[in-house]
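Entry for the shared binder. Reason: the reviewer on the internal report wants the predicted structure included alongside the sequence.
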Amino acid sequence: MQPARRGISLAAALGAAALVGAADCVALGRAWGSAGERAGAMAAVLAALMMAAAVCWSFGVLAVRLLPKRRAWAALAAAAPVIVFLAVDLGQTHNAHALLGRAAPLAALVGLVLGYAGLLRAAEGMAFGRVAFGRVAFGRVAFGAAGVALAVANAWLPARLYPSVRGLGVAGAVWLIARSLNGSTNSDNGSTIATPGLVRAWTAAVLLGALSFGLQQGSSNGRFLARTQAPSASLLFDAIARLHPTPLALPDGAAQAAARAPEGPGPARPDLGDANLLLITVDALRADRPLPQVAARAPGAIRFQRAYAQAPQTAFSITSLLTSTHPARLAASQPTLPSAQGPGAHATLAEILLRQHWFTDAFYPAGLFFDGRSALEHYARSRFGFEWTDTRTLDAHALTDAVLARLAAPRFRSAPRTFTWVHYFDPHEPYVAHGVPDDAPARARYDSEVAYTDREIARLLDGVAAGMRDGVRPTLVVLTADHGEEFGEHGGAYHGTSLYEEQIHVPLALFTIGAAPLGPRAVEAPVELVDVMPTVLELLGVARSGELEGRSLTGLFGSAPAPVRDAHAEEHSRRLLVRGGWKLIHDQHGDVDELYDLTSDPAEARNRAGERPELVASLHASLTQWFNLSSPDALIQTLGDARRPAAERLAAARALAEAEVPAALPALRAALDDPARAVAAEAALALAELADSAALPSLRALLEVPALRRRAALGLGRLRDPGAVPALLETTFDIDVTSRRHALHYLGFLAGEEAVPAIEARALADLKARSDAYLALGRIAERTGSAQAARFLAARFADEPYDDGRQNLAWALALAGARHPGLVDALTIDRLASAAAADPPLPFASEALVRLHARGTPRVAGLDFACTHRADENRFADATTCPQLEAPVRLRVPAGTISIGGAVVLVRVRSLADGPVVETLAVDGRPFARVPLTARFAELRIALPPGAIAARGGELELRVEGAGATPLAELDHLLVVANRPSPAP
């Protein structure tokens, strides 16, 4: 190939995409589905990847033609699709829209991608430039092998985690393979490539895109395979789907009314007399985790084997349980202003019973509203309508003690009746070990938490039963959970991320204490948590009040066959319908269906959507009707139609904000002048979610509205308005932990010295937001030079008991150290040194030692290089540019630095070469360790045993070795930290 035609070659780009696609096809070959569906998915994946390669190639060629002397701009143009992918992906993450809406953070994102491309480009220069042909050939082979290895490694990343990292991995794999096929770009990068070549590339891209789209439309299961089972191409499909968001959901009233129609006469209602009600919920309790001690105390229970929570998040699930209302309706019905014209909040079970003159008590942690506070504000502030609440976060034993003490009060032996709700939090992450090692696997610690909670609930039931002898009424007990917990079954962890059984299937049992048993009976029909409220009202003889979306379960108590029932749930863009043994999950982002036969496939390992299209169509029609799916275009039209009720326009504005639809910006800006104050307010808050500065004047005015002050303050914080500081300080006391954490985050970038005492107080008092308070103080010290903040952080490092808190303290000290390098006392330096020398080391501890000028203290020796840290809002550690390591680096370790306990060498370094690079550490001229380097900065830890360095001191030499021209690496710092302090002289 002529030098003028060396550049981003279309053939090389397509070949690289084909090789990466081949790895995807291997994965698809193992996926479920018919041979035809797998073949169609493979063809769609190959076409999509080759289309993307052609588009990237065309960007690069066009940029080179227009800017032949500006290779940096050419690299930017070639990387543009990758930047778009990352922007779209980050835009879907929590609070990331603030990053994309501001110039400096967005520039940091672009810099990240360009730095990634530049690193590969520099490595390419060393592999292909100014060397003999043999090395060029070797470099090409190495590049191709590295690209294939990266593609394979990328496929092993969890499917639902780290999509941005996987996106960079795909881009790197394609680039490496393309370079191995195309050779050097040290020439003019193809500046004379003919225009017809560009036209052909675009024509090929369009045809391949059309082919990919056409192949995906043939089968729903084929779409599912291509969009979820292909490790690399699924990222491309997801990015395209996110650029075209699909419908949001509000349950359809007519469909729900039909579904709630009476099921026909059931067995006679059990006579519970004037029983009390005890509702027990357990956080994160999976349906497949037995509670044997509870079961032993409830032999006559009705157990529902197929109970579903309405959402895999606590706040929405519990609120649905206590209101018999699905989450979408809950969010849509919340008034934005006290004067808002809307349906208002749904009555809770506690409110209905309180009107009947019951006592109502609740024990639940305030952190229950960690997610969904803004949508469920009314229920958070009204405490679900309970007359008396205890919102402390107690472990199961202390909680049981508190409940039993409350139940022992004399009032429980007389009228009126009592409704008590108890929420056990223990199985929720972090999992505390009970009878198993502290370092046991997460699943084992979780099971120990479940067993511990089982014992405490059994103790509570024993206490209630003992009260029967003292004249207390019989009790109806309902035991359930808010959601389950995942341990990698479908590529995820914890909860709140999917609608698979491990996260959404929950236990549900009803039984009595001191009254005739309800069962025993095991019910196989699908039921929902919204069904609990109408059921207990019927059993307790209390008239229903208001509209309930659930149906009473008493019709299932008998031995007759259960009627056909549907269960529904939702999570982000996914919607669930369960009918009989079949389960349909529809993802509105990308229009993907999953169908599972839970009878034969309870692990949901085989998507049957392609095998049963007629069943998918039937279930999909029911699901669409139930959720009343609305497209963004329809929501925008609703928002702009002044003839629609204000409540509908308000709901549309909120839904558009939650979906983060950029196309809605003009409509939301126009809605700022809506005659309905509530709609205008919601439009301003939605614009803040989309980081649009047009909302600033309205948000400032909303600070004066008590009901919206917190939301307005957080919106102004996203937009970096200093005027939000007073309201943000107030928000640090909010009951919602997410709001507190966000407020502290924004204060770090906006507040000054005057806010330091208040933030220090939050750090001491608020365990859940403590780390955010530390980081806020570190940023304030870095921005303003606050000595008070820096001193507080140094003092706290001695007392912080939690690893995550110590990690964030080290990070905050590193930030503060830029302005106060000599402020930290020797004891804190010694503790930081111990944390840095630990195995594994505490993240950021070594960076804090460097920034605090700890080198040269009796315990630390080292070198720091003039690195430029491009600090962003989150991490500075990987956004650095350091001097290139060309010659060996030598460090003289003074006498007395290394104690009899040995030492640890900490080196922060990265490779610049395309091939293998190895770092060699020598002590007094003797090679001691060889460590391979990676293309990303990493903190290498090399232990030196006692005697490795003589008491009189010694010399460490660091060099790097590898193929290609120098420089081969960048070096940030080299530290030697004694394992423990040297003895005093």
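Summary line for the report: Residues 713 and 726 are 9 Å apart (CA to CA).
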